[in-house]
Amino acid sequence: MSRKDTVAVGHMSGVPPSSSSSSSKMSYEDLYHKNQKPKVDCLIFDLDDTLYPLNSGIAAECLQNIRDYMVEKLWIEKSEVEELSNLLYKNYGTTMAGLRAIGYSFNYDDYHSFVHGRLHYEKLKPDPVLRHLLLNLPIRKVIFTNADRIHVAKALRKLGLEDCFQGIICFETLNEPNGEFFNERNLFDVLQHSVSPAPGVELPKTPVFCKPSEFAMEYALRLANIEPGRAIFFDDSVRNIQAAKGVGLRTVLVGSSHRIKGADFVLESIHNIREALSELREETDKSEDIVLRQSNIAAKTVTSVTA
Ligand SMILES: [Mg+2]
Questions:
Q1: How far apart are CA 243 and CA 251, in angstroms?
Q2: 3-class secondary-structure state, position 25
Q3: What Pfam family is a match for this entry (predicted)?
């Protein structure tokens, strides 16, 4: 199966059905009828620690599972694992990408089933407020995560959000399945390199496509037919936000109250998504570039993006 074949888990249609009022929906459609492309036509969401809070405990479990995998499956010295995993995460975006770069090879499905398959998903609770918010945004919504598709499906189901997105870009979307375990004879000593890099020696490149690689992000956007200038990107990772900005997306850092370089807006919780949409609407309204209309539909927490 080609990478493109795995782009969508669910539909990748342009405009999703909406439970919003007919008037707001009509406004959106009116723009199409007038051949006026809406300035924002896609919202892109990270999954972990973005659609649910960091304090769920899932992130801590993941980290421990990764370290256990390194010891139990790759036979890395336990005393080195913490420093090595931190270093690889810092340099490659994910520990897995870093492990592959320095010469470890392993079956991706095996890795994911070890790291994600053992998570206590009962820690994730249904979030009807977020579900209501998402379903009432008549605009295409896509998940973009470095995690595997099984994890995405399980997490969305636990959160009660499985029908809120029109597409999913996940690990399998960007990476081909790989083979069995083997390690290069000469693993790259990244710990030594971090202390005293040899002259002219650079960190090896990873074969894994993932955020925050701008190359991987541009590839993902092309596969999902997302125009960066018309999309808003939500993520809890500062590096991912800055990379997203680098590829031309408008950005919202989630789970923080501190504005950082590269973030157009900051949200402490994804529940406040309408704050970000309103802010971005005001910015673009000033230049008469965008039509985003909020509607008080049913619950007062609902925002309707009409263009
Ligand atoms: Mg995240």
A1: 10
A2: helix
A3: Hydrolase
- Ligand 1 centroid – CA 49 distance (Å): 5
pTM as predicted: 0.80
Looking at the domain assignment, is residue 297 inside a domain?
no
Residue 303, domain member (yes or no): no
Q: Which domain holds residue 78?
A: 54-123
Tell me: do 23 and 37 sit in the same domain: yes
Separation of 184 CA from ligand 1 center, angstroms? 30
Q: Helix 58-72 and helix 78-92: axis angle, to 10°?
A: 120
266 C-alpha to ligand 1 centroid (Å): 14
Give me ligand 1 centre to Cα 96, in Å.
15
Range of weakest confidence among 129-143, 181-195, 205-219, 238-252:
181-195
Q: Which amino acid does the sequence have at 234?
A: F
Q: What is the 106 CA–ligand 1 centroid distance (Å)?
A: 23
Kind plus residue range of the DSSP H or E element containing 129: helix 128-135
In a domain, 294, yes or no: no
**Distance (Å, rounded) from C-alpha 137 to C-alpha 191?**
47
